[in-house]
Amino acid sequence: MAAIDTLLRTMLDKGGSDLHLTVGLPPKSRISGSLVPIAGAPLDAAAMEALLKEICPEKRWADFLERKDLDLAHEIPGVARFRGNFLYNHWGQAAVFRQIPAKILSFETLNLPVALKKLCHLQEGLVVVTGPTGSGKSTTLAAMIDYINEHLARHIITIEDPIEFVHPIKKSVIVHREVGEHTGSFAAALKGAMRHDPDIILLGEMREMETIKLALGCASMGMLVFGTLHTNNAPKTIDRIINTFPADEQNQVRVMLSSCLAGVVAQLLCKRIPKGRCAVHEILLTHEALPNTIRSGQIANVRSIIEGGASDGMISMDQSLMARVKDGTIEAKEAYMKSANKALFAPLLKPGELEASGH
Question: What is the mean pLDDT of residues 47-71?
Fold first, then answer.
């Protein structure tokens, strides 16, 4: 058994979610939000290198030494899978491992909005799931892919860095590809995927301009493309996609995006009462006014499309937060901190909470 597996098992036994390794400090784990040492002795440079090198293929270790950064998946068979990130910091090599839930949670377990099922039944278009790091985007997308796998016969290609959820074969055929392991880059994998006759492509990240351009191309060619971004609402997501491109290409991108954007799902995690976390969503679906709004660059109007589309299943983040406060899932203070329109939630705060929040 790899030495790092002992630390990962200790972390799981203590109820931790992330393992942090840095030279000069003892191994630490994130337990209930706080970083706690889980082993006594600080790591020196030699121990750190031995820990990391043992679970890393030779070719990828050479990549890490050259690029100073590496993502990879690690599995303790029968126990858990982890997403690992190797990096360099001020003291030398370091790493963070996060547990990937082994079980793919269903729509029902996650209590996802019914409107997301509409997106699963689409034949084509671009669907962007967006939110800050650690907001559960991968978990939501895994539930959507699982729903498709359960109900529809589709050819699905996932392109991730690293592969997080491994889907069993049900009704659909699912091909998992890992950047670095099975393909050189997201863009290269996307170009390949176009030739593999997929119905659906899941893109772990839409960072680079070339990747976004290819994703738009696939969505325009009649495939359904799911991708993720790190924005926190629908209008900002549309802006981010357009602004990734140089000014002279933005008009063309607006036209492409207006014809193929099928939905934006923004997700945030809130502290649940009494413990745990729950997801809240902003959902933008297709609407007759949306293409023209994107083409003409009047992104501010997206807000009114969402607010007017409640009967179709659209909802704004503030409306979602308000619903969770009213049904007692989250505190008013938590909603106030996460909301765009603070004035909506200020009257619901208890005396003194407004000052304590720093607003």
Answer: 94
